[in-house]
Amino acid sequence: MKFINRCVVSLKPAQPFIDWVKSLGADLPEDWSLEGGAYLLDEQDTEEALNIIIDQNACDMMENELSAWEEDPARWPRERNATQLRSWFQLHVAVAGFDLGKDDLMRADLADLEVM
């Protein structure tokens, strides 16, 4: 087991996000609890600092979640800020991350990956 010097923010879709996905006419998952991403952010010393860094990255997190369902940003909600993120997703924060994988971690820009 390896310690990762990051906090982990997990996003779980809340009703406004689910309603937006439904409005797209997309195939809906049977279990929404399996949806949503996990984001690694720099470690923070205080809860206030943690909330600030979440707020600073809110637009990127939200846009990543939206793009998983709709590639056209014109169909995304106009507001993509910390308030919207906290309204559209349930956030769970773990202040420590641990890697239980056997393979080395891969780091790559999403734009460089063919699967995205």
Salient structural properties:
three-stranded antiparallel sheet; 116 residues; alpha+beta; two-stranded antiparallel ribbon; 3 helices
The average pLDDT score comes to: 91
Shape: globular
Number of strands: 5
The run of helices and strands is EEHEHHEE
The fraction of residues in strands falls at: 15-25%
Strand order, largest beta sheet:
3-2-4
Distance between the termini: 29 Å
Write the SSE topology.
Blueprint: E1 2-4, E2 6-13, H1 15-23, E3 38-42, H2 47-67, H3 82-88, E4 89-94, E5 97-99
Antiparallel strand pairs: 1-5, 2-3, 2-4
Helix pairs in contact: 2-3
Give a written overview of the molecule.
The protein is α+β, with helices and mostly antiparallel strands. It has one domain (2-102). The chain has helices spanning 15-23, 47-67, 82-88, and strands spanning 2-4, 6-13, 38-42, 89-94, 97-99. Helix 2 packs across helix 3 (82-88). The protein is globular, with a radius of gyration of 15 Å. It starts with a strand and ends in a 17-residue tail after the last strand. The relative contact order is 0.25. The model has no long low-confidence stretch (mean pLDDT 91).
